[in-house]
Amino acid sequence: MARTQGDADRGQERITDDNGIAVESALVGDSLELSYPTSEETVVDCARLDIPEEAVTALVGPNGSGKSTLLKALSNHLEPDAGTVRIHGSDLESFSQKELARELGVLSQENDSLSSISVEDLVYHGRYPYRGFFDGVSDEDHAAVERAIELAGIEALRDAELGQLSGGQKQLAWIAMVLAQDTDVLLLDEPTTFLDVHHQFRVLETIRQLNERKGVTVAVILHDISQAARFADYLVAMRDGELYDWGPPEEVVTEQLLADVFGVEATVEYEPELQVLPKRALSDR
Amino acid sequence: MAESQSVVDRATTRKREGWVTGTLVLFCLASMVVTIAAGLVQVSFGEYSMTFRQAWTAVFNPAVIFDLDAWSSFLFGTERPEMSTESVVVWNLRLPRVFVAIITGATLSVSGAVFQAVTRNELASPFVLGVSSGAGFAVLATLVVFSGLTPFLPLIAALGGTVAFAIVYTIAWKGGTSPVRLVLAGVIVNMVFQSLQQGLFFFADDLGVVQTAIAWITGSFTGTGWEEVRIAVLPAAVSIAIALAGARQLNVLMLGENTARSLGMRVERVRFFLSAVAILAASAAIAVAGVVSFFGLVVPHIVRNTVGGDYRRLMVGCVFAGPALMVTADVGARLALGGTQMPVGVVTGLIGGPYFLYLMRKQQSMGEL
C-alpha cells in the first residue's frame, strides 16, 4: 500500500534496471533544502533523490559537497528547511523514533571512542529499538545479535573491548551493531575512510552480502570514487550541495564528471570492467 | 533456519545477563565491609564513652532490632520505648548519623555518575553543574529566612537544584550542548549562587544560625538524627532505583548522541528525565548533609577504574562504594581531631581534590569521555 502511494507521487523520471524494468525506491528525498541551525546558508538543495530498493547506492562527491548533510536528512538527524523524506512511501515524520530505528539503520561518521565496552555489549545496543525501559533480552534479540556478529565476521572479537581493537575491527563492530537493528534500509557515512585496504574490503563485502542475502537497501557515502564505481549498483554524485548526476556507475562515471565534480583529470575505462584512473588535479580549483 | 536456531541455543547457554563480574561482587563486598567497620567505629566513640564490646552489643541488641515500636519511633517519629542508656546513645544519637552518611554517599555518587553520562563529561557532577549550589542556596534560604518550611527541605533543595541546572543547561544550549560549554556555564552559575549564599548571611539573626549555615555549606553530619533519615530516605530510594533501572539508557547515551538517536532513543527526553532523577538524588543528600564537595565527582571515577565503564556495573558499584567512602570520611571528620568535629566536606575536599588531580595527571584523556 505504501508502494502504490509512492508510485502516485512519482511523476518524474524513473530509474530502470538493466532490463528496463522500473526500480522502486526505498527512500525518497523530495525537494529538500537543508541547512544547519548554526548558519543561515542552505547547504544542500536537492529536487529529488532516490535510493533504489534492494540495491546499494553510493553517494560520492568532494569534501563539503553536502553528502553527509544529505544523509543526515535522510536519517532524520537533520530536519529539512523544506521538502520531505519518505521511506517506503511514508513520511519520516510519521514514525516514532523507535519505529524509525526498526526501519532505518544509521551509522554515523564519527563514532566516539568509547573504549571500555565489549564488542558483544555494543552489538546488543543495536536491539535498543526493540526493547522497552524495563525489558530484558529476548530470544529474538539473541538471534539477531548472533546473526549480526556472524555477518560482520567478528565472532573472534566478541569479548574484546573496543579500545583494544584496530580502526578496521572497530568499524566492523559498529557495523554489527547497526546490523543487529534488523532494518530494511541502511545508511552508512564513510564506513571505509581511514581503514586499511583489508578492512575496507571486509566492510564493503559485509555490506554487499547483507544486500544480496537479505535484500537490504543500502546508501553509503564513499570517499573513493574508483571504489564506489566498482562497488555500487547506483551512484549519486554531489557537487556544491546539488545533485550533479545519478544512475548506474557505467552511465554516471565519465571523464567529464571527474573533472567537474572532483576536479581531477582521469581516464575512465569501461572494458573489461569500469575502472577510474585519476591522473592529476586540475589547476582551476 | 536450522542455523539460526543453533545460534540461539549457543547464545542462551552463554547466559547473556552475565554483566555481574567477579570484580564487581568483590568490590561491593569490600565496600560493605568498610561501611560496616567504619560504622562500628563511629558508634563506639564519642562523649559517652563505651567499650567496643558495649557499643557493638548495643548495635546488635535484638531487643531493639526486633522492636517494632523502636523502629516506628525511628522512622515515623512516634514515642520512643524504654531502652538502656547504651541503646539510646547508639541507636538514637550515633547510628542515625551513620545512616545519613550511607544515604548521602549513595545518592551523591549515583547522581554524579548519572550526570557524567547525561552530559558525556567526566568532569560533571552535581557540584560542577550548579545543582549543589542551587540546592544549597534554596536550603540556606529556608533555614535562615523561611524556617517554617524545614520539613520540605528535600523538595526545596530539588527545586533550587533544578532551577540552577536549568539555567546552566539554557546557557550551554546552542542546538545541543557540549561538555565544555556545560562546565563553563556551571562554573558561572555556581559563582552566582555562592554569592547569593554569602549574601544570605547578612539576614541571619544570630551567630548560631551563621555557624549552622557555614557547617552546612561545607557539608556536615554533625547533629544529624532520625529526622534527617526520615527526610532523605524516600527520595533517595526512589532516585537510586530509577537510576539503576536506567543504566542501559545511560550506556546507550554513552555511545554518543548521534548513535543513540539512530538507535531510536529520544535523546533530549531521556537526558532530561535522567537529569531530573540525578537532581532528586543530589537534593536528598544536600537537604540533610549540605554541600559535600568533590564526592559526586570522584566516587564514580574510583568505581569506574575498578569495575569498568559499563553503567550497569558502575551504578551498582556506586551504590556500595559511596556509603563506604562517606562513612569513612565522616569517621575522619568526627574523630580525627579528638575534641573538635570537622565538617565532613572538609575531609572529602582535602582527600577528593588531590585524588582527582592525580587522576587527571594519570589519564591522558580527561574532560571528554
Automatic annotation (TrEMBL), chain A:
Signal peptide range = none
User: What does the record say about its membrane topology?
Assistant: Peripheral membrane protein
Matching entries from InterPro entries are given as: AAA+_ATPase, ABC_transporter-like_ATP-bd, ABC_transporter-like_CS, P-loop_NTPase, Siderophore_ABC-ATPase
The record ties this protein, via Pfam families, to: ABC_tran
**Subcellular locations according to the entry:** Cell membrane
| Residue ranges of domain ABC transporter in the record | 27-265
According to UniProt, the name of this protein is Cobalamin import ATP-binding protein BtuD
From TrEMBL, chain B:
User: What's the chief localization of this chain?
Assistant: membrane
Task: Please give the Gene Ontology molecular function terms for this protein.
Answer: transmembrane transporter activity
Membrane topology (UniProt): Multi-pass membrane protein
Matching SUPFAM superfamilies, A to Z? ABC transporter involved in vitamin B12 uptake, BtuC
Function, as annotated, reads: Required for corrinoid utilization. Probably part of the ABC transporter complex BtuCDF involved in cobalamin (vitamin B12) import. Probably involved in the translocation of the substrate across the membrane.
Its quaternary organisation is:
The complex is composed of two ATP-binding proteins (BtuD), two transmembrane proteins (BtuC) and a solute-binding protein (BtuF).
What is the protein named? Cobalamin import system permease protein BtuC
Look up and give the organism this protein is from: Natrinema salsiterrestre
